[in-house]
Design goal:
single chain, two-stranded antiparallel ribbon, 554 residues, mainly beta, 22-stranded antiparallel β-barrel, disordered N terminus, 3 helices
Amino acid sequence: MKKILVTFIVTPVLFTFCSRNVFAQKPTGEVDSQTFEVEKKKKIELPPANRLYNKLQPFTNEDDDRKLNYEFRAPKLTLGAPKMTPNVLPVNGNEKIEEDGNLNNYAKLGGGNYGKIYGEGFVSGQTEDLGYDVHFKHLSNQTGPVDGKNSANSENRLKVNGQYLAGTFKLGGTLFYDRDNYYFYANRNQPNSEVQKANIRQTLNTYGLQVGFENTDNNKFIDYALKTSLYHLNDRYSASETDWGTNFSGSLPITENIFALLNADAFVSQRVDAATFKRNMFTIRPAFKFAYNAFTVTAAFKAVNETDDRLKINRTVGFPQLEIDAVPFNSVHIFAGYGGDMNRNTLRSLLGENRWLAPNVTVANTERSRDIYGGLKGDIGPAFQFEGKVSYALFKNFYGFNNDWLDSTKFAVVYDADYINVLTVSAQVGYQYKNIVRSTLRGDFYDYSIKRLEQPWGRPTTTVTWNNSFVFSKKMFATIDAYYIGGMKNRNFLTGKTVNLKSIVDLNLKVDYLLTRNFSVFASVNNLLGKSYERYLYYPQQGLNFLAGLSLQF
């Protein structure tokens, strides 16, 4: 019997927390304007050149021999329950694949409790050298966890991608528009009214353009990629942010074992709120990489220039970086490194972590002046992969989220302007059995030595995620995800009360069943345990909620 390759896309929006540079400040909202330095660990090799690809890969009749590759990144602190975004995949459900080809396009409709309405569509096309796709998604809840329509929400996404592949280069571009509508529903104990609803409503509109140009000729001596992006964000209260960023990456072999690498970034940003001001950042990072057999050393120096009209900042700092990777045993890597970086924060990035921000929040970049880290990763046989890492970093302008001093239904971004240490211990293990079972278990543990803040407001001390996917047959497959997040605290400064938020335990299930080659049904259930929890103080999340619908592949 032939087997179907099933690709599961799991996007837990909940609890991934930030083991990266984040920091907070005194309740005055002031940030020290002293020079800072930072370094975010990231791979500096350019990705291999690739041909055109479909955004959503179809099922095939081949065994899936890919391994689960794990790499520690700096996940963002995100908010709320995992979003209901069932990914119904196009499928080759019968033996007419050679005649009819793969089904890459789809349309999905669904609904659920809380007045949930869901619609999504994806259309793509390509020739040998030109490809495009258009993706639209709508997901809304007509009511919310409290006060009926006063805690409703909706999100709309429209994205158009295109890319052209010439003989030696690839040109790609993306246009997108996002619209999010929601309400500041904290402490909503009064009856519904249109006046109240209008007063607590928030709408975020984001328009964006991205263009990329990169080398695709592996025989060229120099490899390079140039990408630029422009976006504009505005809200219901006349706040806006316009941001233009450009990145260049290049690599040049010097000898058979030594490579020169260069990364450069330029960000120009303007923010409009109570005042209009500019925030810019320019970086350059030359590096040399030495690789010999099972031993690799990368040495780099990153220079960062940062300006901020509002905070009266104009500084240039540098960060030496060093990373060593060795393979003493087959399939086992031991790595260690030292470095620093500047994490660039924007109004858009902060809203992505906590959408209930108050007007005129302070936006400042976070400095990681020193990060000493080490760990190991590898395989245990053909089915298991593992990775563990310990990081001890020194941060400045570590930030958190806490209820505003004047309005507890909105949140301020609070910064610790001192240098503080953050210890992060992370571990994960993965299991894969052919293309039938995939499972990943990850835990992150944090210890914050804060100074000017009383607590690391809104930040957990422990997060655990367990993601699983199963193929029961050619027609039925499922994902089961579990999350735990604990140790969060927030404070109501109006009453002086500090609240230890209850630990969050969340379990989610999604099932897809193929009716025919072109039709399938799906059902998703979030918060299976029916727990009532708050990711941030006074904002309870939905209890048990579900979404079911029909998908057409064509």
